[in-house]
Amino acid sequence: MYSASHQIGLDIEALSVAYRSISIACWIVVFSPQIIENFRRHSADGLSLIFIVIWLAGDVFNILGAVLQGVIPTMTILAVYYTLADIVLLGQCFYYRGFTLSDAQPTTSDEEAIVDEETEESPLLAHNSTVARPTSRPTAADADGNRRSSSFSSFHSHLNQVDATHLSPTKPVISSKPTSDPPSVSANTPTSPFRTFLVNTTALILVCAAGALGWFLSTRSSLGQQSHNTAPVLVEETEAIRFDLWGQIFGYLCAVLYLGSRVPQLLLNYRRKSTEGASMLFFLFACVGNLTYVMSIFAYEPECAKLGREYRTMQCEEGEWNSDYRRYILVNTSWLIGSAGTLLLDMMIFAQFWIYRKNVK
Q1: Residue pair 59/84 in contact by the 8 Å Cβ criterion
Q2: Residues contacting residue 34 through CB under 8 Å, at least 6 positions apart
Q3: Contact 86, 139 (CB under 8 A)
Q4: What angle do CA 62, 65, 67 make, to 5 degrees?
Q5: What is the pLDDT of residue 78?
Q6: pLDDT tens for each residue of 278-315
Q7: Alpha-carbon gap, residue 357 to 297, rounded angstroms
Q8: For residues 327-349, average pLDDT
Q9: Per-residue CA distances from 247 to 60, 64, 114, 253 (Å)
């Protein structure tokens, strides 16, 4: 891998930083679509409360693992930001749904079933019901009385609709009841799938472009600083990749919680047969953020390869490149499992968006 990247002049470190910058941009705005959606609907029923709670616990372990393992400061700061955003989203759920950890929401049919359920203590006749008279065979006198009653009722209702202005012989009797206009087409027409796809794609492209622009400006700034420093900087001893036991434990706990957090949301969507109230952009940003984060981890270049590329000499000893790369991947395995596994579960949620698309009001 080193020889190939060295021959084509590929800067793996710059590629990793670019992926990381796009991932950061996606994670910064990931919670915004769902928070706006909850505020717009004045409801948080589209999200599983257990999903948010487990995700919050995973972010807390992510902070502990990142600090103990000694990852880059940017990821630690982002972990703190994720935790604060989780708290905001959780506060929305408690505000709109009350302090409960249950995702079960009573439906209209359930409430009617509870009201209409009869017990041994229920009265035989409802309060608003009338006593039913025994039915008998209608007679000719009854039929004649019904016709007279119906004719009188129709004449009385028609007379009530006649305005005083219609008494003039010069004005015909015209019903004053206004004709209802046909409903507006735009009001009843749901948002088309193409429009939703266009809006989501545009927002995703803008966020990714912002991340790429941030990487370009930071790289240009660092190159400008290096140009002012003409003295060569020699690294006598590179810092070895540190393997912290507690950092790894918290990292794997974080991965398990991240994977488990999607299960309640999948079950909630399945029970409701709908994804109404859940923002697709919320999961789309999370999906792209996880994807670019995984790619940034795999795009790693050992220190010996960096020195060789900088001084255009072979600095890696035999087997050193592979050994350093395997150790780096091993240290970040828990974060890889959490991000890659969550990415697959997010794909299942996207499938639910497609399956239940006709059930969204």
Answers
A1: no
A2: 47, 89, 278, 279, 281, 282
A3: no
A4: 105
A5: 81
A6: 999 999 999 999 999 899 889 887 777 666 555 555 56
A7: 35
A8: 91
A9: 12, 7, 52, 10
pLDDT score, position 121: 56
Q: According to the model, what pLDDT value does residue 355 have?
A: 93
Beta carbons within 8 Å of 85's beta carbon, 6+ residues apart: 30, 31
Phi, psi of 78 (to 5 degrees): -65, -35
Sole residue written with tokens 């001893």: 237
The residue assigned the tokens 């799938």 is 193
Tell whether the model's pLDDT for residue 102 goes beyond 80.
no
Burial annotation 302-316 (CB, 10 A radius, 16+ → b, else e): bbbbbbbbeeeeebb
Token output for 253: 């706990």
DSSP string for residues in 69-132: HT--HHHHHHHHHHHHHHHHHHHHHHHHH-S--------HHHHHHHHH---TTS-SS-TT--PP
Contacts of 173 (CB under 8 A, 6+ apart): 162, 166
| Residues 207, 26 contacting (CB under 8 angstroms) | yes
* Average pLDDT of the segment spanning 135-161: 54
